[in-house]
Amino acid sequence: MTADETPATETSANHPAGAPSPGLSPAPPALAIRHVTHEFGARKALDDVSLTVPAGSFTALLGPNGAGKTTLFSLVTRLYDNRSGSIDVLGHDVRREPAAALSALGVVFQARTLDLELTVLENLLYHATLHGIGFRAGRRRALELLEQDGLADRAKDKVRNLSGGQMRRVEIVRALIHRPRLLLLDEPTVGLDIASRAALVAQVRKLVAQEALGVLWATHIIEEIVPGDRIVVLHRGRVRADGTYGEILARTGSDGLGAAFLSLVGEDSEVAA
Ligand SMILES: Nc1ncnc2c1ncn2[C@@H]1O[C@H](COP(=O)(O)OP(=O)(O)OP(=O)(O)O)[C@@H](O)[C@H]1O
To answer: Model-level pTM?
Structure first.
């Protein structure tokens, strides 16, 4: 079977990918991190971190600068080796089964990584090729995703001519090209205006709802989090709270997420309310 003929992940309206099948054991979470510690010399960037991103959930990783969010993403993506604890993507341990784990993973890094001199479509096809997807299947998938996101008319434009928000949306499309089940986004809205930020968050929430994608969204912007989201509060390398929006408010006795966050991490935070 060629890459062009590789069947898409089976989905249907009643049984989206990642959701448990009737009669079968429940699907593994999109991401399960257990007891991970990471040090840079004497500095402990992560200290016994455990968290789960269920399939079909929008989980916000909320933490101020220096909390350890990027370090955590670097461990999940294997930029760094996790020497303690375990990290499973869709049930695959990233150390023992890196190929299976990484093929289920899409990432949008903090720094922009599109080639400005290539067109939108060329950028997407380049990425598809890296994932072993044939030219025709890659083109079909890229155009389908651009269409869904309202960007089809920009396919042949050089990336240089897009707005910052559009570039970010293309990066999300690129991260989805190989049909991952987990999407990691590291502070994707930094530098965007309010309208672009809202469009980006809406794009990702739609994916969670329609495709049962598990999303881990690192941010320090409280406004991006809404009731119904799962939240992991990370501060100075430690998980300070992990639960639904309502659980975090109830646990801290707060009437808003800003107040809840402050009561969890104290005054030395740089989280934007
Ligand atoms: N390569 C490195 N060498 C030494 N220390 C590092 C390195 N990378 C990160 N750190 C330190 O680890 C801690 C966590 O940093 P990290 O970048 O993961 O936080 P973050 O939550 O992503 O912050 P930001 O929002 O500012 O990117 C910080 O104290 C940082 O200075």
So the answer is: 0.86
Residue nearest to atom 14 of ligand 1 (CA): 68
Using the predicted structure, report yes or no on whether residue 5 has a pLDDT greater than 60.
Answer: no
For residue 164, what are the domain limits? 105-179
Domain count along the chain: 2
Q: 86 to each of 50, 54, 58, 185, how far by Cα in Å? A: 9, 16, 22, 20
| In a shared domain, residues 73 and 201 | yes
Average pLDDT over the chain reads: 88
pLDDT tens string 93-126:
999 999 999 999 999 998 888 999 999 999 999 9
Instruction: Decide if 28 is inside a domain.
Output: no
Ligand 1, CB cutoff 6 Å, lining residues: 40, 43, 45, 63, 65-71
- Of the candidates 128, 149, 179, which is a domain's last residue? 179
- Count H helices and E strands in the chain, helices first: 8, 10
Measured by CA distance, the residue closest to atom 5 of ligand 1 is 40
CA of 68 to the centre of ligand 1 (A): 6
Read off the CATH number of the domain in which 221 is found.
Answer: 3.40.50.300
How many whole angstroms separate alpha carbon 166 and alpha carbon 226? 23
Please, are residues 96 and 78 in contact by the beta-carbon 8 Å criterion?
A: no
Distance CA 87, CA 76 (A): 7
Q: Are residues 83 and 146 in the same domain?
A: no
Amino acid at 5: E
Task: Mark whether 120 and 84 lie in a shared domain.
Answer: no
Indicate which residue's Cα is closest to atom 24 of ligand 1: 65
Q: Are residues 202 and 273 located together in one domain of the fold?
A: yes
